[in-house]
Amino acid sequence: MLFPLALACHAGQKVGLACLLCYSHITQSKAVQTGSLVPEEMSSQVRLRLLPRARCLFDEPVQVKVAGLRSRQVVTLRAGSTDEKGVLFRSSATYRADETGAIDLDRDPSLSGSYVGVEPMGLLWSMKADTLHKRFQKTNSLNPHVVKFSVHEEESEGRILAEATNERCLTRQGVSRLPVKEGNIRGVLFTPPGEGPFPAVLDVCTFMCEKRASLLANRGFVVLAVAVYNEEPDNVKNIHLDYFEEAVGFLLRQTKVGSKGVGVVSRSKGGDIALSIAAFLPGVEAAVWINGCNGNLAVPLYYKNCQILSPILFDHSKVIPTDSGASIVKYGAKNPLAEENKASLVPIERAKGHFLFAAGEEDLQWDSKAYMGQMVDRLKRHGKENFESLSYPRAGHLLEPPYGPYCLSSFHGVVDIPVLWGGEPRSHAAAEVHLWKKIQEFLRTHLSCDATRSKAKL
């Protein structure tokens, strides 16, 4: 068992050892203040439990159960969390207890609130900020995502009946985190516990974020997270593939790595970089492309001091403003298949490894589904079968590891305005759960490990 059993409980309950441990953890934890979630008095009968434990990994589901209510009592369940920028995100849903006074979110539907229907993890993915255009910031893997759950009466001004704290860790016990400053590389290396051998993955983030890399390390991959933009995008006049080649070499030298090549995981601008890594560099066995472009976006791409891909430019006149203050930029990138952009298309048919393409059909950042279709057609024309493609109806751009708050709109660091990301929250959350499992299966399938390779490096 990775974490000690901890059942959330309320003040005044007669508890066993497991609950006492949890109550001590809750009261001593540096949990965030969530406004109304500080009770003056709580019922001595109602119990709120998070199963199988109150401390888990970020990408693990929890079962939320309430007991001790009156038969058929209507209550409101709330969740709240503060991100790294100090922004408070909240959700709420109204439930009716069964005849025994129990509520189980795996079974019972929300009647109203942030979502309706049976949604076991709805209180997590439906959390949003009170102000517009805020994205939940969780880029550092050292601190857990702390969520305060609470049960409130419908009457009595929403008096709190019970509460519990869920710590959702990005790094499991034994995973090492090492900031990397070697040669030109600036990134963070995550290594699983144990001797290995482990497959190696390069996580290409548009802007530096440790979440996906640390969660993959929890699942048995050695992962190096690097960013496309290590400085302000306006200051970046070109990108050099040599930087990512250096990162691949660094990964393959790690003593616990047993794969003969690496996998690459990417989204958005990182997507076309990942395609270029797979097409132009040796040693890439698998590449995951999520909601990106099939051509090189924004700035020229160089390799060995020569330009290998020209940029697809952005037409700001095609940005569509909305009443919310956020814009749709989906149609701003010029057509990759236009004659003037042919030199920008990534020659993915050159790749020796396998591809996993994933597109949200309601992506409002890029025309990702169309780009994915163009890549599939290109590979088929070249007689290639080294790809899988996934299309998610009603999912948007920000497909991430599951159970984080869905983001409708936020400030875009490249185009320098608030943008709409697209997607319907429930469908988007379901797509994240499915895609996260597929990514891990894909990488394990195509990154073969050899124990003799890791031993040879010792």
Keywords:
single chain; 458 residues; alpha/beta; Immunoglobulin-like; Rossmann fold; 2 domains; 8-stranded mixed sheet; 7-stranded mixed sheet; 25 strands; disordered N terminus
Morphology call:
globular
First CA to last CA: what distance?
30 Å
Which CATH top level class of the largest domain fits?
A: Alpha Beta
Helix content: 10-25%
Strand arrangement within the widest β-sheet reads: 11-12-14-13-16-17-22-23
Strand segment count: 25
Under the CATH scheme, which architecture of the largest domain would be assigned?
3-Layer(aba) Sandwich
Helical stretch count? 8
Proportion of residues in β-strands: 25-35%
> Unreliable stretches, pLDDT < 50, 5 or more residues?
1-40
CATH superfamily annotation of the largest domain:
Alpha/Beta hydrolase fold, catalytic domain
Tell me the count of domains.
Answer: 2
Q: How is the main sheet built?
A: 8 strands, mixed
Could you say what the CATH topology of the largest domain is called? Answer: Rossmann fold
> What is the radius of gyration computed over CA atoms, rounded to a whole number of angstroms?
23 Å
Class computed from helices, strands and strand pairing: alpha/beta
Please state the average pLDDT score: 90
Describe the protein:
- The chain is an alpha/beta fold.
- The chain folds into 2 domains: 17-169, Immunoglobulin-like (Sandwich), CATH 2.60.40; 176-456, Alpha/Beta hydrolase fold, catalytic domain (Rossmann fold).
- 20% of the residues lie in helices and 29% in strands.
- The chain has 8 helices and 25 strands.
- It has helices at 17-28, 122-125, 211-218, 241-252, 269-280, 368-381, 425-446, 451-456, and strands spanning 47-51, 55-57, 63-67, 74-82, 88-96, 103-104, 112-113, 128-129, 145-153, 160-169, 176-182, 185-191, 198-205, 222-227, 239-240, 257-267, 284-290, 301-303, 306-309, 320-321, 327-328, 354-360, 387-392, 409-411, 418-420.
- The chain has an 8-stranded mixed β-sheet, with helices on both faces. Strands 2, 4, 5, 7, 8, 9 and 10 form a 7-stranded mixed β-sheet that branches. Strands 1-3-6 form a 3-stranded antiparallel β-sheet, with no helix packed on it.
- The longest helix has 22 residues, at 425-446.
- The two termini are 30 Å apart.
- The relative contact order is 0.11.
